[in-house]
Amino acid sequence: MQSEPVLRRLIKITLNTSAAVLVAPSVLVCYLETKRGPGYERFFHGWGQFYAVMPGLFGMCLRRAFYRGTLTGCSIDCQIGFGVLFNHREAIVGPEVYIGPYALMGRVKLGRGSLIGSRSSILSTGEHHVMDGQGRWTTPDNLLFQITEIGEYCWIGEAAIVMAGVGDGAMISAGAVTAAKVPAYVMVAGNPARFVKRLVEEDPSEPEEGGKTMGAVSG
Fold this sequence. Notes:
Blueprint: H1 3-34, H2 42-52, H3 56-70, E1 73-74, E2 79-80, E3 85-86, E4 92-93, E5 98-99, E6 104-105, E7 108-110, E8 115-116, E9 121-122, E10 130-131, E11 137-138, E12 148-150, E13 155-156, E14 161-162, E15 171-172, E16 177-178, E17 186-189, E18 194-198
Parallel strand pairs: 1-4, 2-5, 3-6, 4-7, 5-8, 6-9, 7-12, 8-13, 9-14, 13-15, 14-16, 15-17
Antiparallel strand pairs: 10-11, 17-18
Helix pairs in contact: 1-2, 1-3, 2-3
């Protein structure tokens, strides 16, 4: 019975090491691309799309290895599902994070243990397009995106669209659209997202004595 954890650990090490070796050339290409200056991400996008459609457990290992080598930060024990794409290198994936199939990530910071549902989108904070003098929406090079922070142990439901930060332990219902920051330990739902209920009455991050009651999300 004691040999099972050891065997599992050896298999995990073998898969992760093999994946890291296989993605090394693409990681190097993406690294060289950064030397051209900020905003050059064509190879990063291309290789990300290539690894996104690799099936099975080893496909997940390849995606994780690629993003560990190209993102600002990516934990060795996160799970990145089939079809997941990161639109920018400036992203951080914390430990124990799960990202479901076909999710789209902008400039994000995913806290420990966050669950990101399938087909959900977490956008970078800030303006994505501006209207030019001829009334056309464009994406100029000087737009400054900010990191959208998702707290620890959050649950982002399937097909949710998140456009602002989310506090620790919050739950975003399936299909919800959030345009304002969601406080910690509350559930929101709908489009636009509105307060549904508090998930806890006391803030677990506060000391046991003197803990404060959570506020509701404004509707």
